[in-house]
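Example 3.2
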Amino acid sequence: MPTASGGDRSAWSPGGPAIETGYPPKSGGFEPRRADEQPLPVPRISSERIIGFDIARVFAALAATWLHAVESPQLGWTNDFGRFAVPFFNVAAAIFLIFSLERHPEARFGGYALRRLQKLYLPFLAWTAIYVLARYVKGAFFGAGTLEIRWGHLLLSGVSLQLWFLPFLALASMAGFLVGRAILRRRARTLALSALAVAAAIFLATTPERSFHEVFPRVLPVLSEHGLEYFFGRVWARLPSFLMGFVFGLMLVEFGESRVLRRRGGFRRRLFGLGALGL
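Structure, written as C-alpha cells:
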C-alpha cells in the first residue's frame, strides 16, 4: 500500500519477498523500509535548553556560595570573584521574562505572580523561619546575644545576608511582567521606557547610596526603624543589572532577534546566546 513518503507498507515474510498486507505493523513488529523511503521527521521539542546558560548558571551558583562562605583572612580577597553572580541572575531573569511574555502574550498577571511567590517568596519565608529558630536556640542554649527582629527582616530583608535576593527578584519580576506586557511590541513605548530604564540604571550604578541619604536624611532612620535599611541598600546596588537585562530583552524582541536564543543553530547562535546572558 503506498505511503505518504512514496514507499509501500508491507509485512516481511521469511524466505520470500515483502507481502502487501494493507494494515500497519503490530506494536513491536518489524517493517523493513524501502531504499527510496525517507525517514519520518523527528518532532521538535517545544522547549529547548540553552547549554551555555546552564553552564553559566552553575558557575554563578558556585560563585554566590563562595562569596558568602569564605571568611578567612587568607581567602577573603577571593570574595570579589563571586560578585558577578547576582547581576548575572538578574540579567538572565529579566531577559527570559521578556521572552516568556513574547511566547505567551495571553498570560495573566495573577497566575504569574502566584508562580513567582511559590518559587521565590515561600522559600524565603521558610528559610527566614529556620534562621530565626536557629538564632533563638543558639541564644537559649549557648548564651548568644538576643536577635532584634523587625517586620522588614521577616518579610523582605531576611535575617541572613543572602536571603534578600529572593523577595527582590519576586517583586522585580512581577513589576517587569506588568510593564513588559504593557509595552511589548509597541515600538514607541518600548524605546521610550528603555531610555528611561537605562538612565535609571546608570544613575543608580554611578551614585553611591549614601548620597541619597545625604539628600534625604530622614529616609534612613525610617528604614532602620522597620528593618529595611539593608534591603534598600541591596536593591540600590543590584537593580541596575535587572534594568539592563530588561532593556536588552526588549531590544531583542522588538528587533526580531530573540529567536536566536530559542532555536538550535550553529556556533554563532550559541555564542551569541552565551554572550547576551553574560552581558
